[in-house]
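Internal QA ticket QA-208
Title: Verify multi-chain structure generation after dependency bump
Assignee: T.L.

Test input:
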Amino acid sequence: MALEPRMRSLTLLVSALLALPAVAAELPENHITNIFKPLATPAESEKSIALLVFAITGFIFVGVAGLIAYTIWRYRQPSGVHQHEEPPQVYGSNQIEVAWTVLPILIVFVLIGVSARVIAAVENASPPAAALKVTIIGHQWWWEVLYPDYGIITANEIHVPATPDGKNATYLQLQSADVIHSFWLPQLSGKTDLIPNRTNFMWIDPREPGIYVGNCAEYCGTQHANMLLRVVGQDPKSFKAWTIEQQRRAVDSPNAAEGGAVFQSLACVNCHNISGLGQASSGSKFGPDLTHLMLRQTLGSGVLKNTPENLRAWVNDPQVAKPGCLMPSMKLTPDELTKVVAYLETLK
Ligand SMILES: [Cu+2]
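Actual output:
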């Protein structure tokens, strides 16, 4: 009787495991978060060290587990015999004790040595003068992205050049506006924390154009799991085109004027900056910069695709898609909602 539920959960577990490859296959080609498919130098060195560590620890595991299995089998009690005496015992052996002390110490030193070399190689690489510099500021629960040399401010989606020769490195300065976050793009590099009142660095040199996804890797509050990261690797020409688009100030088309006034009247400006909207909005950094909102693929740090319906739903009540997030439901009337969303849709 007790077996039935156990069997059922076992069947469930097995079918869940079998379904895993299918789930992974559902993801679009470049949406992989797999440290074993590195596409940048730091991630490559980290992969090779991960494989080395797996090999050494795997060897130890097979050796130890094998000896245990062999011993259990070799010294099992023969069937039918009921003896209760202990087998002959061995007390103390200098040779064995030296072996099991020295060997692990050697293994640990090898592991420390290779790790230190890889860490130093990744961390001490100094940026070529031409490297793109990007500042990332972690906020609860989104990423502010600044390009100081271009005067660009955006959020959650980091555009960088990507070339097969890895010659287009991007240096990232990592900061935090509130609590500790951690920046992690498995295919590009290891994790680096973003710590309040401190600047950490990391670099990436993506080899292929495409989207690299990642996530905050340090628990930072309720919506930590929805603090997704996207790096958009682009060939240098498209990257250049992107920077030019981003440097434009918010468009002032005639129908946008009314919407801009709505936006300003609805207190959105207290938290969001839109360049070109005038003093009222400049410098608000509590929420993501919305100047080129429509050029982003997602909303709310990856929780929603950036479609007209989702945008309307988000502005109507962000707490539905991202409960606990720091944008309150603004309780707009349907008319205000329509106007402000129509305005947001002009932000290209
Ligand atoms: Cu987090």
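Spot checks passed. The domain at 31-73+93-238 is CATH 2.60.40.420 (Immunoglobulin-like).
Status: verified.
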